[in-house]
Amino acid sequence: MNPAVTLLNLVLCFAGFGALALSLDRHHRDALGSRVPAGRVLPLRLAGWCLILASLAVAIAFEGANFGPVQWIGALTGAALLVVGLASYRPAWLRPAALSALPLGILLLPVVLAG
Questions:
Q1: From CA 85, how far away is CA 41, in angstroms rounded?
Q2: Are the C-beta atoms of 18 and 115 separated by less than 8 Å?
Q3: Number of domains present in the structure of the chain
Q4: 3-state SS class at 115
Q5: Which domain holds residue 36?
Q6: Global pTM exceeds 0.90
Q7: Is residue 83 assigned to a domain?
Q8: Burial class (CB in 10 A: 0-12, 13-18, 19+), 80
Q9: Given Cys at both, which of 68, 78, 82, 103 links 60, Cβ 3.0 to 4.6 Å?
Q10: 8-state DSSP, 24
Q11: What was the pLDDT predicted at 65?
Q12: For 17-67, what is each residue's pLDDT tens digit?
């Protein structure tokens, strides 16, 4: 088990769940103070699902078909707990946290590829 792959999966899932949460009116209103514009719902949902599927692809590619999905489920669980915690207690932090997860994932990519 490679810790860099685990962290990359967690970061991708967190950004994905953050995008999915911000595509909902309630969470968007809590985080940004306004309803989600109609033209932004679909891109947020597509980005969220693509990031989650990218996390699955990373898990299977680097941890194998046997252990990759298990690691992915763990990353999904951890990321969901983080997003729920932020959306509940610090909703204004959800957008910056989800956006900062993407550069962190890009920085982790060379470490994962080297390991």
A1: 22
A2: no
A3: 1
A4: coil
A5: 3-109
A6: yes
A7: yes
A8: middle
A9: 68
A10: S
A11: 95
A12: 999 999 999 999 999 989 999 899 999 999 999 999 999 999 999 999 999
